[in-house]
Design a protein that fits this description.
2 domains; globular; single chain; disordered N terminus; 19% helix; six-stranded antiparallel β-sheet; alpha+beta
Length: 328
């Protein structure tokens, strides 16, 4: 049984980011100055279709250049790295790729002023999760100008396909500013730095315990020192813009990205052999070495509580991919 998503766009939404309004005469409404719905229902549906078509083509041909036609930001970096890695194993593509398909699509549309603008499309996919049920994909689409294409910049799935309940007024969601006017315990624009700092030091109490906070640090610690090998970590914030929508409890659902680096060093007399599934992202020739560095882009979906509450930031979903590997 599929669950109806809380995300909706009203049928009355007919304006794109920039529209022509007829009053006593005609005047152009500018999306950079006026508060307008980020997207029309028809354009949102077309953006989801473009994503689906592009995703299937990229994964069938294993041509990483295709990703840039339907993705941007963190999701582009993650999926493009996956395509490059897959091509290292299948240089002739993957003609047997099972196409991605969506049903029961809905859209969450905020009213926004200025650029970039964004909206969320959520739909039931034909991909199964760990519980054996089809997963609902939540895709954040963004564009920087009225003539630009909508591209997916973040992707998340949630346990049981249950998304946080968003605040909706007159059919529209509320976009949360990234700066100090957000009303959140941590502003969306500072989340990437805060998460990187927490993962690097373990200090602070802004984040709730969980798989991608305390659990992620524990997994790193347990794998840092292996027989004949050592792994070091360095977390960094990303300069990619976050996306945030107000939830009904006054907090926000926020999508943001981070970057981390790993350096693996093996003892004298040993060598690191790059597995086939990573050869497509290696910078320079593939060779045996005693030291390798890896860069990974990570995308998170979190809930951030409102200021003055006792809640903590909860990481609901995290996806990642190694984007480069280099022998040192």
């Amino acid at each position: 049984m599929t669950r109806r998503s809380p995300f909706r766009v009203p049928a009355a939404v007919t304006s794109a980011a920039t529209a022509l309004v007829v009053l006593s005469g005609c005047m152009t409404v500018h999306g950079e100055r006026e508060v307008l719905p980020a997207v029309s229902k028809a354009d949102a549906a077309q953006a989801l279709k473009n994503f689906t078509d592009g995703f299937n083509k990229a994964n069938r041909t294993l041509d990483a250049k295709v990703n840039a036609s339907f993705e941007d930001g963190a999701l582009l970096a993650i999926d493009q790295a996956g395509i490059k890695a897959a091509r290292g194993v299948r240089p002739n593509g993957n003609p047997g790729f099972s196409p991605l398909a969506f049903t029961d699509a809905h859209f969450t549309v905020p009213q926004q002023k200025g650029w970039p603008k964004f909206f969320i499309g959520d739909a039931l996919s034909n991909r199964r999760g760990g519980d054996g049920q089809n997963t609902r994909w939540f895709l954040v689409f963004s564009r920087d100008a009225v003539n630009a294409k909508w591209r997916a910049v973040y992707l998340a799935t949630f346990p049981g396909n249950k998304a946080p309940e968003l605040k909706v007024t007159d059919g529209y969601a509320e976009a949360v500013p990234a700066d100090g006017s957000s009303g959140l315990t941590v502003d969306p624009g500072k989340l990437s730095q805060a998460y990187a700092d927490y993962l690097g030091t373990g200090k602070g109490d802004a984040f709730a315990p969980g798989r991608e906070t305390t659990g992620w640090r524990d997994r790193r610690a347990s794998g840092a020192n292996q027989p004949g090998a050592r792994i070091q970590w360095e977390d960094q914030p990303s300069n990619l813009p976050p996306v945030a929508l107000r939830t009904t409890d006054g907090g926000a659902l926020v999508f943001f990205s981070t970057i981390y680096h790993q350096q693996k060093t093996v003892s004298k007399g040993l060598m690191i052999t790059v597995p086939p599934e990573l050869r497509g992202i290696v910078d320079g020739p593939v060779k045996k070495t005693t030291r390798m560095a890896f860069t990974t882009v990570s995308g998170q979906a979190v809930t951030v509580p409102a200021k003055g509450t006792e809640g903590k930031i909860k990481v609901l979903n995290r996806i990642e991919a190694k984007t480069s590997a280099k022998a040192l």
